[in-house]
TrEMBL record:
The keyword Cell division does not apply. Its main location: cytoplasm. Zn(2+) 1 binds at D78, E140. Zn(2+) 2 binds at D78, E113, H338. The gene is ACY1. This is Aminoacylase-1. Keywords: Cytoplasm, Hydrolase, Metal-binding, Zinc. GO terms for cellular component: cytoplasm. It comes from Aotus nancymaae (Ma's night monkey).
């Protein structure tokens, strides 16, 4: 058989080639285009079509809006929402001809989700940042399922700790003493006992929020080569989030004592160790808080000041002397950052724009402070 020219190609071959042009290879497959192609074929053939997706009700990058007004997308809450709310609020303020004593700068910085080490951590040291002469910063917060709005004035310090235990190796059939696993078990038990103590402290005090206590999770176990070989080395990795009122030097000494109590040859190292926890005051001694809270009061917004349980770029700003508040204007909204079906109602999003059109003028009108002279 001979192939036909393009002008007389069989329609089935043309269709086949169209499908082949869709880039569905890993690691960045364009599944959305493939699904759209197949759905269109079903429509043309008069066939019913059902799309079944694990975890997400809709493609997380489709920004699907349902009949109730909920927008489903990765980033709907964390944190593309406030990026657009900032831009839209500034657009409205400019359109209305507003001018303020202070300059409003908007920064869009990468890598926050992986620690900000190639983003805000470097940017705050740059001459371009220093030239901004920033007096105050707003950053991301979290949704609040109640009528209130959460505002974060500090956050816990991320400490990633890897404990390595060395001991006597040997055959798995023998009662070997002083093994790496035996000693590592002691450290793990000590740290998880501390975790339980902090958890009970949180549970027993209704006035404490999660960010006010230190959390820790065992996130990784490594070691061993075979079922019947006792390994010479094993390690355990932990994700600590240390509360801002903790004496960090004393806490590191506590880690050292847990390792020493387990026996010889037990050491620890840091994968991440934040040592500059700062608190932005939430009383009228802080003119930025006074302006922020007064504007919120004028809008009848109920504020719930808290310590953020996780970590954001705010820590780098506070560390260089810039007071910062973490605030995402999302109330009556379940906390769904990093979760399946992350979504935000369009009415909540639009109200957030309105809130920023009131907040930004209040903050940009704070009189010059003695420290800025």
């Amino acid at each position: 058989m001979t192939s036909k020219g393009p002008e007389e190609e069989h329609p089935s071959v043309t269709l086949f080639r169209q499908y082949l042009r869709i880039r569905t290879v890993q690691p960045k497959p364009d599944y959305g285009a493939a699904v759209a192609f197949l759905e269109e074929r079903a429509r043309q053939l008069g066939l019913s079509c059902q799309k079944v997706e694990e975890c997400w009700s809709h493609d997380p990058f489709e920004a699907f809006k349902d009949s109730e007004g909920y927008i489903y997308a990765r980033g709907a809450q964390d944190m593309k929402c406030i990026s657009i709310q900032y831009l839209e609020a500034v657009r409205m303020l400019k359109m209305e001809g507003h001018q303020f004593p202070r300059t409003i700068h908007m920064t869009f910085v990468p890598d926050e989700e992986v620690g900000g080490h190639q983003g805000m951590e470097l940017f705050v040291q740059r001459p371009e940042f220093q030239a901004l002469r920033a007096g105050f910063a707003l950053d991301e917060g979290l949704a609040n399922p109640t009528d209130a709005f959460t505002v974060f004035y500090s956050e816990r310090s991320p400490w990633w700790v890897r404990v390595t235990s060395t001991g006597k190796p040997g055959h798995g059939s023998r009662f070997i003493e002083d093994t790496a696993a035996e000693k590592l078990h002691k450290v793990v038990s000590s740290i998880l006992a501390f975790r339980e103590k902090e958890w009970q402290r949180l549970q027993s005090n209704p006035h404490l929020k999660e960010g006010a206590v230190t959390s820790v999770n065992l996130t990784k176990l490594e070691g061993g080569v075979a079922y019947n070989v006792v390994p010479a080395t094993m390690s355990a990795s932990f994700d600590f989030r240390v509360a801002p009122d903790v004496d960090l030097k004393a806490f590191e000494e506590q880690l050292q004592s847990w390792c020493q109590a387990a026996g010889e040859g037990v050491t620890f190292e840091f994968g991440q160790k934040w040592m500059q926890p700062q608190v932005t005051p939430t009383d009228d001694s802080n003119p930025w808080w006074a302006a922020f809270s007064r504007a919120c009061k004028d809008m009848n917004l109920t504020l719930e000041p808290e310590i953020l349980p996780a970590a954001t770029d705010s820590r780098y700003l506070r560390a260089v002397g810039v007071p910062a508040l973490g605030f995402s204007p999302m109330n009556r909204t379940p906390v769904l950052l990093h979760d399946h079906d992350e979504r935000l109602h369009e009415a909540v999003f639009l109200r957030g724009v309105d809130i920023y059109t009131r907040l930004l003028p209040a903050l940009a009108s704070v009189p010059a402070l003695p420290s800025e002279s």
